[in-house]
Amino acid sequence: MDFSAVDARFAYQGFLGVELTDCRTAFSVWAPEAEDVELRLYRVQDDAPCDQIPMKMDENGVWRYEYPKRLDGLYYTYAFTYGDETRECIDINAIAAGANGLRGYITGLSGTDPAGWKNQDYVKLENPSDAVIYELSVRDFSSDPSSGIAENFRGKFSAFTDLYSRLPSGEPTCLGHLKKLGITHVHLLPVFDFEGVDEENPSTSYNWGYNPSNYNIPEGSYSQNPNDPELRIKEFKSLVSALHKEGIGVVMDVVYNHTYRSKDSSFNITYPDYYYRRSANGCFSNGSGCGNELASERAMVRKFIIDSVLWWAKEYKIDGFRFDLMAVLDTETMNQIAKKLKEINPSALLYGEGWTGGESALSYERSASKENARKVPQYAFFNDNYRDAVKGHNFNDADLGYISGNYHYRQTVINGLLGSAVWAGSPSQIVNYCEAHDNLTLWDKLILSAGGCHDDDRKKMSRLAMALIMLAQGVPFIHAGQEFLRSKPAGHGKYDHNSYKSPDSVNSVKWYRLDENIRESEYCRGLIAFRKAHPVLRLTNFYDIEHAAEVLSSPDGTIAIKLTRVEEMLILVNPIPRAKMFLLPDGEWYLHISDIKASTEPLATYCEAIAVPPISAMVLIKKV
Question: Is the pLDDT of residue 624 over 90?
Fold first, then answer.
């Protein structure tokens, strides 16, 4: 449907929602074609309304009502009349709600800031390639008893405030582990208010959270009391505060491409059809693969998305945003988000999935897809080409990758190490990864694709994969638990490919595996420290990479790259299950990364040649 005339006549850039002052409460909602809008007030979320007040249409299709006193602590909804039908819903701009997000809650948020909040700032980055991102679900992070988190905190925002949780061995878990590991940013799967989990009985169901309900409200199932609208806000701010105190930024996974409901969503009740794209046959377009897609190119949809991102950045001090199915969103909206967000926080991280989940009604030219990366230069995109080359095709369990025996992927891996993605305008637009919440974990993929190998060889493959991610130009990305071989067994020798609603027994991070695989975790920790210590691994433009990098001759199937910028670095990669001899350029070379250890301090000195062990990477620095 064409709403261009509506946008031309009614587009509005002012405040929408609830404004509180000392002596009034002002409500405003945009619904330019509604015949009537009624404000309904509730003392208790589940009771009948205590007041029903007609609102009046003002300029640009904004309906308003001003109550002559503060109404803190009341719940509210709007009832919209179109034709002979009146339907009630939560305010799409609500910033607080009761359990399961049924009704908005009126609050000034004055009591939701944790101690020291006003003095906290964003985590600073010189460049996106300085980030090391660690993706996790709030619930998965601490729900397993082996997390060492107190039972009432498990699976909750509050788990992130415990710096001292331990395994029986004394090894830190949860926040202590993140601090020790050295990552720079935690990427949280959706923490806005979503459907699919009963907030009052969260243990009875599970969902990752890609079911948007109320975009500007924290999820209640992660709160210790979802019936307290302000508590979940304070708890989430406390999560951000706890991470910031350890120098760790917070990235929100945001899902502005679709809503969980379509015809019955609060958006469609507020203004039928406006917020969604339709296909040629009049049905909801389904570029998200979830039943609908938001029409981000329309003026008031764009305003909503921009306002929402800025709300999280300002009120909750969020350091970055990962956009789900970003190709469903238009480039103009994404560029406006980047411009306004960078004015608040120049270090803000912005990245997303450069694809859709189905056929979208948005034109290819306007899509914020990976292929259009140069049209949205402030955004990075997941490098699925590198992912598949490293471990094998993501959607073919049996497909072998470079680390597991398919050496035909050698050139793609070289390209990944050098940030040579044809679609990217700079290395900062590339997110390198081999595992995420979607699909098989790397360890499970290796079990299924390299099933004939011994576990020791699969561990070598896992370490090599981690090295290839941390040594590549661009932005490295790790899935929680990947560093200690996270697995999602589904029983009967099967592994969960799509655990978005699988139980905690599948999804939870099993912290006891950290003790079992401590050498793998320590290897990852060493890689992160080494990456941070060597700027040549974090170059910011292709010109510098081209002039710094040289691909050297090496035995068949292997890789040798020399990087020269202030120092000389050799990256040697041997995915073959037997040792390979590499000739070294002239000079003395300090070994910093071996097959079992990664360190900022030299491990050994070599001249002339070095034998690289089976299925491993080695990195050497030339003695000056």
Answer: no
Distance of CA 607 to the CA centre of its chain: 43
**Residue 544 pLDDT greater than 80, yes or no:** yes
Residue 407 DSSP symbol: G
Identify the CA nearest to 313 among candidates 375, 256, 249.
249
Q: E-strand spans in 1-147?
A: 17-21, 24-30, 36-42, 51-54, 56-57, 62-67, 75-82, 85-89, 104-105, 133-136
Catalytic (active site) residue 353: yes
- In tens, the pLDDT along 203-227 reads 999 999 999 999 999 999 999 999 9
Number of domains in the chain: 2
- Residue 46: domain span: 4-89
Contact of 26 with 58, CB cutoff 8 Å: no
Residue 204: how many CA atoms within 13 Å on its side-chain side? 6
The model's pLDDT over 225-271, given as tens digits with 9 standing for 90+, comes to 999 999 999 999 999 999 999 999 999 999 999 999 999 999 999 99
Catalytically annotated residue among 199, 353, 444, 520? 353
Residue 167 counted as domain residue: no
- 43-49-53-58 Cα dihedral, nearest 10 degrees: 80
Report yes or no on 475 lying in a domain.
no
CATH for 57 = 2.60.40.10
CA-only gyration radius of the chain, Å:
26
- CA-CA distance, 326 to 334, in Å (whole number)? 9
pLDDT digits (tens, 9 = 90+) for 418-475: 999 999 999 999 999 999 999 999 999 999 999 899 999 999 999 999 999 999 999 9
Whether 324 is catalytic is yes
Distance in angstroms (rounded) separating the CA atoms of residues 505 and 502: 8
Question: Which among 89, 124, 158 is the end of a domain?
Answer: 89
Which one of 324, 483, 520, 595 is the catalytic residue?
324
C-alpha span between 318 and 252 (Å, rounded): 7
